[in-house]
Design a protein that fits this description.
alpha+beta; five-stranded antiparallel sheet; 209 residues
Length: 209
């Protein structure tokens, strides 16, 4: 019947159609994948986190070295100047290597050699359009995200965050709708790294200025 087309429900839009209608080109997935891998490499676990089995061996070995060095020093420095009123000089020398080794370990810990950095991992979570400003999403990315959220009310915004010791590094924002996904932007504390932008080719085909 001629009115069937008017009564039929409209065909649902896809994410690709919504992006095309706005002449928006999302961030390439290869760009996002390369960025994620490079950041995981950059923030990999610390030396002692990657070689945990060696840390107890090194600590036990250092205690053994301190005991041996103390015994050797006591054997080669048996003299006593307690009559001077300052105690046994040999006793003092026997503890000197121990104090030096302990001081060395303190310096190594201070300069991060024994840093227990566990490395970083990417985590994703859904966010609402009204949360984007509070989460620090740059304006040029959040505007695109809100526009798509209005065009596709059932779409989900997903924030990806690189987490290292509870610190958030290098976030990115993607949009999911049905089985389609698009990356809207990547940024860090210095600014935007990549973002979805107007596609000049689509704009010319649609006659946009």
């Amino acid at each position: 019947m001629p009115f069937d087309a008017l009564l039929a429900p409209p065909e649902p839009r896809t994410l690709a159609q919504a992006l095309g209608d706005r002449c928006i080109a999302p961030v390439e997935w290869t760009h996002l994948a390369a960025h994620k891998q490079s950041q995981l490499t950059r923030f990999q676990p610390g030396f002692w986190q990657r070689h945990e089995a060696w840390l107890p061996i090194a600590l036990v070995g250092s205690i053994g070295c301190m005991a041996v060095s103390g015994g050797l020093t006591r054997a080669v420095a048996p003299w006593d100047i307690s009559t001077w009123g300052i105690g046994s000089f040999g006793e003092l020398l026997s503890w000197l290597p121990t104090l030096i080794l302990m001081g060395s370990f303190a310096l190594l810990i201070l300069f991060g050699v024994f840093r227990g950095r566990a490395g970083a991992e990417w985590q994703e979570r859904g966010v609402l359009p009204e949360e984007l400003d509070r989460l620090g999403v740059p304006d040029e990315i959040s505007v695109t995200a809100r526009t798509l959220a209005r065009d596709l009310p059932d779409a989900e915004l997903v924030l990806g965050e690189l987490i290292e010791d509870a610190v958030v590094l290098d976030p990115y924002l993607i949009v999911q709708y049905d089985d389609q996904v698009a990356c809207l932007g990547i940024w860090d504390d210095r600014g935007v790294i990549a973002r979805a932008d107007f596609d000049p080719g689509l704009m010319r085909r649609r006659g946009w200025p």
